[in-house]
Amino acid sequence: MRMYDIIMKKRNGGELTEQEIQFFIEGYTKGEIPDYQVSALMMAIYFQKMTETETAALTMAMAHSGDMLDLSEIQGCKVDKHSTGGVGDKTSLALTPMVAACGIPVAKMSGRGLGHTGGTIDKLESFAGFNVALSREKFIENVNKIGIAIMGQTADLAPADKKLYALRDVTATVDNMSLIASSIMSKKLAAGADAIVLDVKTGSGAFMKTQEDAEALAQEMVKIGNHAGRKTIAVVSDMDQPLGFTVGNALEVKEAIDTLKGQGPADFTALCLELGSQMLVAGGAARDAVIAKTMLQQVIADGSALDKLAQFVGAQGGNPDWVYHTEQLPMAEHIVDVLAPVEGYVQKITCDEVGICSLMLGGGRETKESEIDLSVGLVLKKKVGDYVQKGDTLAQLHINDLSRQDAVTKRLLKAYIIGEAQPKSSQLIKCIIS
Ligand code: URA
């Protein structure tokens, strides 16, 4: 078999066989097939798409490209959660301690930022000393002891996805349904959870821009998960504007902490409650979503979810005091206001553009090797539906390198669409697929 023939077959619209998919995944994982050939194949898949059969084969090949984690030493039903990626999506930071405080063990592998979206692992590194590379033994010990551990994808877990993820990030081949479904589900299957709750984003900040595409992605992932014997539920949620007010690593950590104190933005809090209740029901901690939501609200009100976050940060090498004193988190040198150029309603905020603004400030990666600046980002002061006067602050840039200010400001102002007509409010939770 030759990689060249596989690329050509897909470029010409053919359907790859299971053997061909296994060949390229195995060869790429072992370093026998170079990045440039896999980039070409990714681009061919991007344009020609994959069938359901190809996507399932790609998922299984990637899941089995490394270790399949055995979490049976952790007591209870392990429920994992994964987002397809969004802007200002700090959900795992608040949600996982909430769920753990309700008694569901959280043993989670998370990713780094991808394209214009952020990643939980980068955000957690805002706590100086936080260790995202736990050994399997330490990972399991922490979950059994305090109910929660989150780590980066290890070299042995779905290594094919790890390489492909980084390659797709810099070759404009992220937003393809089959590549996203196989990427997410390969990791989730290899990571060993009993049940999986997926947050599938739709809108201008999501990889799936339309609700129809997001629902199709959700259906595909639920099918793959259930077929592999894992109870899988997908919540399709709005990502047509950033979630909450903050975009950027440490800024999002702070907002997640505010949410655990009961002072979070309404949209973000509502999403955490929805996903959390699905996790509690899937894990058998609550009979239905209504009871589950009450349990989650209780652990926010009594402070146990916040304490759980502090325990978790401490157990992985960070300073738990930072959870209670967020002024210790990395902070940018300058805060610069971006002002409304006209009066009117904020009708739309082109969400991926806000993600790109954060990336331009240094909060995301331009190349596979880029170092990110955890302190920078944006705080939105106005969101869709707000009325602004000319000169009102739309958003604040948290910035270190002032030479980037003009370009980011220009781009952000283009992302804010302001007009006379009041926009219709959009629904946060679009549908639930199980
Ligand atoms: N999240 C992933 O893990 N993979 C993707 O391809 C997109 C989002």
Please explain how this structure is put together.
The chain has a 4-stranded mixed beta sheet with strand order 1-4-5-13, with helices on both faces. α1 runs parallel beside α3 (35-48), α4 runs parallel beside α9 (177-190) and α9 packs parallel to α10 (211-227). It contains 17 helices and 13 strands. Helix content is 46%, strand content 15%. 55% of the residues are buried. The chain is of the alpha/beta class and 434 residues long. Bound molecules: uracil. Uracil binds at residues 84-85, 111, 114, 165, 174, 179-180, 183-184.
Short description:
By secondary structure, the chain is an alpha/beta fold. It has helices at 3-11, 18-29, 35-48, 52-63, 91-101, 120-124, 136-146, 159-169, 177-190, 211-227, 249-260, 266-282, 289-301, 304-315, 321-324, 351-363, 405-415; strands spanning 79-83, 106-110, 148-152, 195-202, 231-238, 246-247, 334-339, 344-349, 377-380, 387-388, 393-399, 416-419, 429-433.
Strand content: 15-25%
Distinct small-molecule ligands in the complex: uracil
Q: Report the total helices.
A: 17
Seen as an oligomer or otherwise, the chain set is: single chain
Helix content: 40-55%
Q: Termini distance?
A: 39 Å
- How does the overall form come out from the CA principal axes? globular
Largest sheet: 4 strands, mixed
Strand order of the largest sheet: 1-4-5-13
Please trace the helix and strand order, writing H or E for each element.
HHHHEHEHHEHHEHEEHHHHHEEHEEEHEE
Mean pLDDT value: 95
Helix- and strand-based class? alpha/beta
The count of DSSP E runs of length 2 or more, i.e. the number of strands, is 13
| Rg, nearest Å | 21 Å
Stretches where pLDDT falls below 50 for ≥5 residues?
A: none
